[in-house]
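Renewal narrative, Specific Aim 1. Our central claim is that a sequence can be written position by position from structural information alone. The example that follows is taken directly from our test logs and has not been curated for this report. It begins with the structure tokens describing the chain, in the order in which they were read.
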């Protein structure tokens, strides 16, 4: 069955031989916070001779699928890298299309997300987003702010070095104006100035599409995170891929530098 599955997907996967079930996973520790770099949408489209935007659109549907499953598994937070500060360099038509996706996503799925108690958030520089994109997201954040299920956190116009520099500037300002003492700057305080705020550090990072790098994503927060990479392109990512990633995570012993 898995062989057939691989053949259909047409991409080699660092998969365990057996197919993993939800029940298998629920016997082990569920990662509290999963972060995903959703790469390979353009490549998926190219393979099919479709425009890049078709890949982005397909990728959007996968966001819905994976959010639902993560919530069902009891994952507390899912951070998805949707748009980096570097992505503005893409052709204007592609950027304009991408900026319509939050609205389409929320128009289609927000009622379901509300029903499932999902809380929508974003992290990144919101000031540069088009008004229509910003308004749609703000409405969803407001509507879901008291929800107690999964936190669905979109990294949008996000870059980690800028996030860290902004934190340093804020801390420096507060030291300067006397509201903060320099010797009270510790890891906990520093973390509270980052965009992840009250979210705990990710336990598991997934990157699709075979690229093995961080690309300026959550540099501080990923200090002790387990990494899982796959050749699967984001539009092909599915529930079984997530189960495989969590299964691998459960097989690893995390020691945070101890023995
Ligand atoms: C394209 C694959 C959902 C990655 C997923 C603006 C690239 C689909 C959202 C979304 C994108 C963002 C905020 C929100 C609700 C939904 C999204 C972008 C790209 C960049 F509140 N998918 N998605 N945003 N893609």
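The sequence written for that structure reads:
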């Amino acid at each position: 069955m898995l062989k057939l599955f691989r053949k259909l997907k047409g991409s080699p996967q660092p998969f365990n031989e057996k197919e993993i079930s939800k029940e298998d996973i629920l016997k082990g520790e569920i990662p509290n916070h999963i972060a995903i770099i959703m790469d390979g949408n353009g490549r998926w489209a190219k393979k099919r001779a479709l425009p890049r935007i078709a890949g982005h659109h397909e990728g959007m549907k996968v966001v819905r699928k994976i959010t639902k499953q993560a919530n069902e598994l009891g994952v507390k937070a899912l951070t998805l890298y949707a748009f980096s500060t570097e992505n503005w360099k893409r052709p204007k038509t592609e950027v304009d299309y991408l900026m319509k996706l939050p609205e389409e996503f929320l128009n289609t799925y927000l009622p379901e997300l509300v029903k499932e108690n999902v809380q929508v958030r974003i992290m990144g520089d919101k000031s540069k987003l088009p008004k229509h994109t910003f308004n749609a997201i703000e409405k969803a954040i407001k509507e879901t702010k008291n929800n107690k299920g999964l936190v669905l956190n979109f990294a949008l116009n996000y870059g980690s070095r800028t996030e860290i520099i902004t934190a340093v500037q804020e801390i420096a300002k507060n030291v300067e104006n006397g509201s903060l003492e320099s010797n009270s700057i510790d890891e906990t305080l520093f973390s509270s100035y980052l965009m992840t705020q009250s979210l705990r550090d990710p336990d598991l990072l997934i990157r699709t599409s075979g690229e093995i790098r961080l690309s300026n994503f959550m540099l501080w927060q990923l200090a002790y995170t387990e990494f899982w990479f796959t050749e699967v392109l984001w539009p092909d990512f599915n529930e079984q891929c997530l189960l495989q990633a969590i299964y691998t995570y459960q097989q690893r012993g995390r020691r945070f530098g101890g023995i």
